[in-house]
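Example S7 (structure tokens).
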């Protein structure tokens, strides 16, 4: 008889724990959903799907110092809690250049070091 009581008590305990965990997850999801609604505007149902943007792969040459700067900017964004790729860093730079006034844009472009394009020679 003691075994039966122990089994049923254990079963009841597991069921209660499962309900508690489920309730906690439901509360967390409702809280998170509420925050998402505040940040993201609701899309209209009859709105057509946006066309996918074609992704282009390219290669380019840059000085080692500029390449290291990308790494520093990635670390800086991670310290702020935002994970970004090298490609993302470059795209953010393009957006920043595009938003500049004509004078600032020409000033920044004029300050870019001119380098020889192509693959660097391999040292053996």
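Recovered sequence:
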């Amino acid at each position: 008889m003691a075994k039966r009581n122990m089994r049923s008590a254990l079963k009841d305990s597991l069921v209660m724990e499962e309900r508690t965990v489920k309730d906690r997850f439901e509360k967390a999801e409702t809280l998170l959903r509420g925050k998402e609604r505040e940040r993201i505007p609701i899309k209209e149902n009859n709105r057509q799907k946006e066309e996918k943007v074609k992704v282009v792969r390219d290669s380019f040459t840059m000085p080692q110092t500029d390449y290291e700067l990308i790494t520093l900017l990635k670390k800086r964004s991670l310290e702020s809690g935002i994970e970004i790729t090298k490609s993302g860093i470059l795209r953010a730079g393009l957006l920043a250049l595009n938003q500049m006034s004509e004078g600032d844009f020409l000033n920044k472009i004029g300050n870019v070091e001119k380098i020889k394009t192509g693959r660097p020679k391999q040292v053996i």
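Notes on this example. The mean pLDDT is 82.
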